[in-house]
């Protein structure tokens, strides 16, 4: 495990984790995993089944039945999918069912993974951990722009309220809450565009691992 190159990218909703992690992975020749997709896909399976995403037994059953095809569904984004993902993510047995999957992915060839608990729970031994953030107002603006791009009508104030509620739920849960690892490097992207955030992150990675 010691030489395993895993880069953990954690942070709140719409901070730019995925955009950043995907670019880092491409730059460094590593596989990339968006771990939020796992929780989103479990939430979607529950919504499809007409079940309550907070129903622990039903959610655990769906997490255990998850397939790779679930992750490429086109309906994993949007307010209902966001809240369903956050609800199932608070259930310990759901997280346990998804843990091996994430670890196996990272251990195969190293990886860049983004989520909430990569540096704290999934890969606490990762040599590089980034905690990516931005102000709630800026994150809401970014998510709102994305939704508009997908043709999803939404009010900016409502997007911000939903994002704050989900961050609060993700931070308050007892299992694997959203919080920076003690040895994480903080990256505040409020005033950075995606390119500047990538360059700043690359500098942080190379400061930790000069051979890259
Ligand atoms: O994965 P996460 O929810 O943290 O965010 P994302 O989906 O990667 O990014 C949300 C949006 O913010 C995307 O449309 C990005 O183009 C934009 N953005 C960014 O990723 N990084 C910045 N520094 C500024 C904007
Ligand atoms: O893209 P965005 O940041 O809005 O969300 P995401 O990364 O796709 O994650 C969706 C939800 O899954 C989050 O609100 C968390 O509740 C949960 N999640 C988690 O608990 N742990 C992870 N490693 C990744 C996501």
Describe this protein with a few key phrases.
cytoplasm; alpha/beta; 212 residues; nucleotide-binding; binds cytidine-5'-diphosphate; five-stranded parallel β-sheet; Rossmann fold; kinase activity; Cytidylate_kin; transferase
Structural topology:
Blueprint: E1 6-10, H1 17-28, E2 32-34, H2 36-48, H3 56-64, H4 79-89, H5 92-109, E3 111-115, H6 118-122, E4 128-133, H7 136-149, H8 156-172, E5 185-188, H9 194-208
Parallel strand pairs: 1-3, 1-4, 2-3, 4-5
Descriptive account of the structure:
- It is a single chain.
- This protein is an alpha/beta fold and 212 residues long.
- The protein has a single domain, classed as P-loop containing nucleotide triphosphate hydrolases (Rossmann fold, 3-Layer(aba) Sandwich).
- Strands 2-3-1-4-5 form a 5-stranded parallel β-sheet, with helices on both faces.
- The model has no long low-confidence stretch (mean pLDDT 96).
- The longest helix has 18 residues, at 92-109.
- The protein is built from 9 helices and 5 strands, in the order βαβααααβαβααβα.
- The chain has helices at residues 17-28, 36-48, 56-64, 79-89, 92-109, 118-122, 136-149, 156-172, 194-208; strands at residues 6-10, 32-34, 111-115, 128-133, 185-188.
- The protein binds cytidine-5'-diphosphate (2 copies).
CATH topology title = Rossmann fold
Shape label: globular
In round numbers, the mean pLDDT is 96
Total number of strands: 5
The CATH architecture name reads 3-Layer(aba) Sandwich
Helix content range = 40-55%
How are the strands ordered across the major sheet?
2-3-1-4-5
What is the highest CATH level, the class?
A: Alpha Beta
Question: Could you tell me which ligands this complex binds, including any ions or cofactors?
Answer: cytidine-5'-diphosphate
How far apart are the first and last residues' alpha carbons, in Å? 18 Å
Count of domain modules? 1
Main sheet specs:
5 strands, parallel
Please state roughly what percent of the residues sit in beta strands, choosing from under 5%, 5-15%, 15-25%, 25-35%, 35-45% or over 45%.
5-15%
Number of helices: 9
SSE run = EHEHHHHEHEHHEH
Q: What structural class should be given to the helix and strand makeup?
A: alpha/beta
| Uncertain residue segments | none
Determine Rg (CA atoms, Å).
Answer: 16 Å
CATH homology superfamily name:
P-loop containing nucleotide triphosphate hydrolases
